[in-house]
């Protein structure tokens, strides 16, 4: 690369990723092939429209690569229709709302402090000005079980057009069948935002909402799915819904699709169809369980009481007197990256909440097994208990660096 300034920044980020441990549960390390496709000359091409129906010429290869991505996505998630053009998870959700709702219509989704996402109707978003978002919660934060009875009551009262399942900070499996039953009762469409667990679904390590009758899945293609940053909308079998979604993505909401990104999605979906990916998905869960065990041992409160997936949400303020922000900073100092996070009904503020959220997708890609994950959990707790002890933190930093060196990011360095 000729641009020395940007090159230096890329090298710096490379070193940061190489020497530290990535525990942000929505991050991962993509393969060389995914990087190569994402950095390919498909980036030069404009392709408004869909395969076979574009507004520009020269689409021989773009059509083929988009068809391949669609075919692989449908095989991976066991569905009939896929739109692989959304630029990321938020645009995928917004395009889905625009496809199915009129202004003022109601969406019933997970309460944000109980694990939902900004695009599930947070008041700071524009969609919250357009549509009416109502919320369900967990019944009990000790088990994480959703209050399905409450959900049904709200659904009967508010008659939502969409019932939305899914989360960005929730660690338990959902009972999709219950969502579907309630939706049928009130005539709602079921939409699952599976951005966090798409890789776990693809690897058959957790349930696929389509198997229980969900109509739509939206997702990112990075995170556990280990593809390029991007989004996707899947429709189980309803052609009418699929057509509305295609129209909504383009021309309704987006312009030209990023074909380099779609090529990289095709590569990632191909990788996710392999037996090795199934093994990877199962190992993510085993690793999260190993970390959960250590947090239990040290009596640190976990929202939902533990985890069934790739992430843990821990109340570090309530258990250790360290705020989420302070925990994030001090763990960064020793080479562990994670994020502060609100916990259910948090009394603290989003920029300094009570919790931290962390997970195992990235370290599992590096080859970590249960033993290493348990060690990382011990080191995290030791760091938080010694947050003002410089010497102790230096010792831990060295241990983290050694561990990172022992498990290099595959195919990179
Ligand atoms: N920022 C993503 C996450 O970390 O969960 C969701 O958009």
Question: How much is the radius of gyration in Å?
Answer: 21 Å
Largest sheet features: 7 strands, mixed
Q: Determine the mean pLDDT.
A: 97
Unique ligands: D-serine
| Uncertain residue segments | none
Give the percentage of residues in beta strands. Answer: 5-15%
How many strands? Answer: 14
Number of domains: 2
- Kindly report the spatial arrangement of strands forming the biggest sheet: 4-10-9-8-7-5-6
Summarize the structure in words.
By secondary structure, the chain is α/β, with parallel strands linked by helices. It has two domains: 32-272, Type I PLP-dependent aspartate aminotransferase-like (Major domain) (Aspartate Aminotransferase, domain 2), CATH 3.40.640.10; 284-406, Aspartate Aminotransferase, domain 1, CATH 3.90.1150.10. Helix content is 46%, strand content 13%. The protein has 16 helices and 14 strands. The strands form four sheets. The chain has a seven-stranded mixed sheet, with helices on both faces. Strands 11-14-13 form a three-stranded antiparallel sheet. Strand 7, helix 7 and strand 8 (189-193) form a beta-alpha-beta unit. Helix 3 packs parallel to helix 10 (259-272), helix 11 (275-297) packs parallel to helix 15 and helix 15 packs antiparallel against helix 16. The model has no long low-confidence stretch (mean pLDDT 97). The structure holds D-serine. D-serine (DSN) binds next to loops.
């Amino acid at each position: 690369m000729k641009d020395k300034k940007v090159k230096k920044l890329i090298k710096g980020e490379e070193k940061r990723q190489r020497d530290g441990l990535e525990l942000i549960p929505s991050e991962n390390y993509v393969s060389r092939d995914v990087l190569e496709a994402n950095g390919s000359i498909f980036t030069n091409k404009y392709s408004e429209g869909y395969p076979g129906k574009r507004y520009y010429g020269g689409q021989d290869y773009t059509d083929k690569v988009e068809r391949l991505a669609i075919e692989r996505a449908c095989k991976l998630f066991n569905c009939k229709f896929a739109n692989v053009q959304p630029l990321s998870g938020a645009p995928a959700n917004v395009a889905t709302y625009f496809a199915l709702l009129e202004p003022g219509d109601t969406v019933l989704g997970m309460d944000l402090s109980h694990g939902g996402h900004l695009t599930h109707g947070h008041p700071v978003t524009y969609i919250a000005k357009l549509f009416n978002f109502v919320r369900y919660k967990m019944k009990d934060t000790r088990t994480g079980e959703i209050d399905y009875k409450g959900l049904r009551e709200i659904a009967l009262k508010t008659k939502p057009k969409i019932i939305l399942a899914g989360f960005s900070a929730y660690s338990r499996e959902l009972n999709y069948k219950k969502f579907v039953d309630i939706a049928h009762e009130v005539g709602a469409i079921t939409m699952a935002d599976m951005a966090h667990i798409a890789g776990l679904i693809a690897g058959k390590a957790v349930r696929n909402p389509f198997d229980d009758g969900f109509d739509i899945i939206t997702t990112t293609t990075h995170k556990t799915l280990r593809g390029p940053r991007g989004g996707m909308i899947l429709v189980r079998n309803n052609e009418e819904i699929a057509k509305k979604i295609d129209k909504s993505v383009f021309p309704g909401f987006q312009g030209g699709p990023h074909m380099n990104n779609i090529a990289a999605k095709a590569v990632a979906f191909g990788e996710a169809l392999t037996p090795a990916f199934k093994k990877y998905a199962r190992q993510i869960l085993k690793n999260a369980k190993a970390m959960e065990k250590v947090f239990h041992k040290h009596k640190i409160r976990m929202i939902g009481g533990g985890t069934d997936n790739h992430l843990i949400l821990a109340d570090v303020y309530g258990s250790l007197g360290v705020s989420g922000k302070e925990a994030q900073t001090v763990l960064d100092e020793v080479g562990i990256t994670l994020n502060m996070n609100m916990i259910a009904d948090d009394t603290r503020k989003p920029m300094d909440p009570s919790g931290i959220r962390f997970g195992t997708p990235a370290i599992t890609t590096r080859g970590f097994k249960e033993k290493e994950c348990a060690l990382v959990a011990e080191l995290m707790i030791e760091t938080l208990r010694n947050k003002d002890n410089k010497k102790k933190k230096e010792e831990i930093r060295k241990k983290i660096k050694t561990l990172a060196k022992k498990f290099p990011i595959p195919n990179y360095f």
